[in-house]
C-alpha cells in the first residue's frame, strides 16, 4: 500500500504548529505546537490523537526552527509516528503569500523557494518564517516531497476588476501592488463544506464566507471560485479585526506623518497591532467585550457596534457582487462561537432573505449546522474551519497525482 500520511506544518516567526494526518481515512494521528522559539521558556505541547493519550508539555530553551522541528520529530517518534516512517507521503507547508504565480499547491524546489523569498517585501512578517520552516523540514527529510499550500491561492480567481487598485498601472505593476487576499485555505474549505451542508456541489452555490478570528476576512464565492475578498495587498485591509484597523482612508497615514510626526514604522505598528477592537476598547477578545457590554460598558459596546457595522457592509457588498446568495457562513474563533456576533451581523437584513433562528443560533459547539429558520430564503450557517485538513488534502492530491 502506498504511503498515506501527511505532516502539515505552519511555521511562524516564533512558533511551529503541526498535525499528522492519515489521508486513507482522513484521521488525525497527532498534533502539537512549539512556541516561544528562541526563548529560555520555550514550550513544546504534543497531543497523541491516534492513541487518545493525554497531551504532553515540556518547557526549556528551543533555540531555533531547526531545534523546534527536531523536538516535534522526537514527540512523534515517541508515539511510533516518526518522520522516518515509510508511511509518510509528504510534508505540506502553509505559506502565506504566493503572489500571482502560485495559484495551486506546488511541489517545492529551489525555484519555488526563490520565488517565495522574492515575495518577502509583500509579506515581511510571514514568508521569512514559512521559508525557515520549509528549509528545516527539507533538511530533515530531503527525500520526501514538500508541498507549499498558499493562503493567497484561492483568491487568484478574482477578476482584475476586483484585484486591481485604482492607482497608476505602471507603478502598481512595478511594485506588485494588487489585492491578493488571505485565509484562502479556510475560505476554500468552508465554502466547499457549506455546499455539502446544503446538499449541493460547490459549482451550484454562491456563498459569502465570514472568517472571523483575531484576524478576519470575508469572501464572495461564486460556484466554488472566489470573485472578491476583503483583505488586499496585506492582511490589513477589510474588516475590523482584533488588533488591525481594516478599511481606512489612506490619507490618515499622511496626516499622522505630517501632523502627528509619526514614522512609517510607528504607523505600521499602530494600524496592525494597536487598532481594531484593542484600539477601540482595549480588548481584542470578543468574550471579554461581550462581558463588558453586559455590565454596561459603553466603550466596549461602541467597539462592538463598529465591528458589526463593517461586517454588515461587507455582507451587503458581496450580496451585490454575487447577485444571488445561497448561504452566508460564519467560521473561525469568533464566527463559530459568538452567537451575539452572528445575530447582530444579519439583523435588519431580512429584506435580503437573511435571518437567524434564536434557538439554533444559541447552540454551542458541534459541527457544521444551519442557524437560519426553515423558511429562510438564504441559508445562514456555522461551519468550523479546518485549514490543516485542507492543506493535507491538497498536498496528498498533488503528491498522488505526481506519483
What topology emerges from the helices and strands here?
Blueprint: E1 5-11, E2 15-22, E3 27-35, E4 43-47, E5 56-59, H1 65-78, E6 88-95, E7 106-107, H2 110-118, H3 127-140, E8 146-150, H4 160-163, H5 169-174, H6 184-197, E9 206-212, E10 216-222, E11 225-229, H7 251-258, H8 264-273, H9 276-281, H10 286-294, H11 298-322, E12 327-331, H12 332-337, H13 339-346, H14 358-362, E13 369-370, E14 379-382, H15 387-402
Parallel strand pairs: 1-6, 6-8, 9-12, 12-14
Antiparallel strand pairs: 1-2, 2-3, 3-4, 4-5, 7-8, 9-10, 10-11, 13-14
Helix pairs in contact: 1-3, 6-15, 10-11, 11-13
Rg is: 22 Å
H/I helix tally: 15
Structural class call reads alpha/beta
**Topology order in helix (H) and strand (E) letters:** EEEEEHEEHHEHHHEEEHHHHHEHHHEEH
Terminal CA distance reads: 13 Å
Brief descriptors of the model:
14 strands, 38% helix, 403 residues, eight-stranded mixed sheet, six-stranded mixed sheet, alpha/beta, single chain
Overview of the molecule:
The chain is built from 15 helices and 14 strands. It has helices spanning 65-78, 110-118, 127-140, 160-163, 169-174, 184-197, 251-258, 264-273, 276-281, 286-294, 298-322, 332-337, 339-346, 358-362, 387-402; strands at 5-11, 15-22, 27-35, 43-47, 56-59, 88-95, 106-107, 146-150, 206-212, 216-222, 225-229, 327-331, 369-370, 379-382. A hairpin with an 8-residue loop joins strand 13 (369-370) and strand 14 (379-382).
Summarize the entry for a quick read.
This protein has about 400 residues and is α/β, with parallel strands linked by helices. It contains 15 helices and 14 strands. Strand 3 and strand 4 form a beta hairpin.
Amino acid at each position: 500500500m502506498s504511503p498515506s500520511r501527511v505532516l502539515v506544518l505552519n511555521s511562524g516567526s516564533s512558533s511551529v504548529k503541526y498535525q499528522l494526518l492519515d489521508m486513507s481515512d482522513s484521521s488525525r494521528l497527532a498534533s502539537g505546537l512549539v512556541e516561544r522559539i528562541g526563548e529560555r521558556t520555550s514550550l513544546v505541547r504534543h497531543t497523541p490523537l491516534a492513541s487518545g493519550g493525554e497531551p504532553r508539555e515540556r518547557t526549556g530553551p528551543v533555540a531555533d526552527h531547526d531545534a523546534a522541528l527536531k523536538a516535534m520529530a522526537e514527540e512523534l517518534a515517541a508515539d511510533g509516528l516518526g518522520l522516518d516512517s515509510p508511511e509518510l507521503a509528504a510534508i505540506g507547508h502553509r505559506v502565506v503569500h504566493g503572489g500571482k504565480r502560485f495559484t495551486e499547491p506546488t511541489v517545492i524546489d529551489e525555484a519555488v523557494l526563490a520565488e517565495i523569498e522574492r515575495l518577502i517585501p509583500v509579506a515581511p512578517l510571514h514568508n521569512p518564517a514559512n521559508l525557515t520552516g520549509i528549509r528545516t523540514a527539507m533538511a530533515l527529510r530531503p527525500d520526501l516531497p514538500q508541498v507549499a499550500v498558499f493562503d493567497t491561492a484561492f483568491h487568484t480567481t478574482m477578476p482584475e476588476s476586483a484585484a486591481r487598485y485604482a492607482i497608476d498601472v505602471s507603478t502598481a505593476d512595478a511594485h506588485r501592488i494588487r489585492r491578493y487576499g488571505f485565509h484562502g485555505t479556510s475560505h476554500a474549505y468552508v465554502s466547499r463544506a457549506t455546499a455539502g451542508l446544503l446538499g449541493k456541489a460547490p459549482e451550484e452555490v454562491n456563498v459569502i464566507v465570514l472568517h472571523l478570528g483575531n484576524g478576519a476576512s470575508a469572501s464572495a464565492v461564486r460556484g466554488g471560485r472566489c470573485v472578491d475578498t476583503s483583505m488586499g495587498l496585506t492582511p490589513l485591509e477589510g474588516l475590523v479585526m482584533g488588533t488591525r484597523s481594516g478599511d481606512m482612508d489612506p490619507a490618515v497615514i499622511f496626516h499622522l506623518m505630517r501632523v502627528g510626526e509619526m514614522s512609517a514604522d510607528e504607523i505600521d505598528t499602530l494600524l496592525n497591532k494597536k487598532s481594531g477592537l484593542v484600539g477601540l476598547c482595549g480588548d481584542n477578545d470578543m468574550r471579554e467585550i461581550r462581558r463588558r457590554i453586559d455590565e454596561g460598558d459603553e466603550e466596549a459596546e461602541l467597539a462592538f457596534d463598529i465591528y458589526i457595522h463593517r461586517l454588515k457592509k461587507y455582507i451587503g457588498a458581496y450580496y451585490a457582487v454575487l447577485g444571488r446568495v445561497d448561504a452566508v457562513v460564519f467560521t473561525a474563533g469568533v464566527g463559530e462561537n459568538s452567537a451575539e456576533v452572528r445575530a447582530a451581523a444579519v439583523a435588519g437584513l431580512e429584506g435580503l432573505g437573511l435571518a437567524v433562528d434564536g434557538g439554533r443560533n444559541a447552540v454551542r459547539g458541534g459541527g457544521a449546522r444551519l442557524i437560519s429558520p426553515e423558511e429562510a430564503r438564504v441559508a445562514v450557517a456555522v461551519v468550523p474551519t479546518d485549514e490543516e485538513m485542507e492543506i493535507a488534502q491538497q498536498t496528498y492530491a498533488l503528491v498522488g497525482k505526481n506519483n
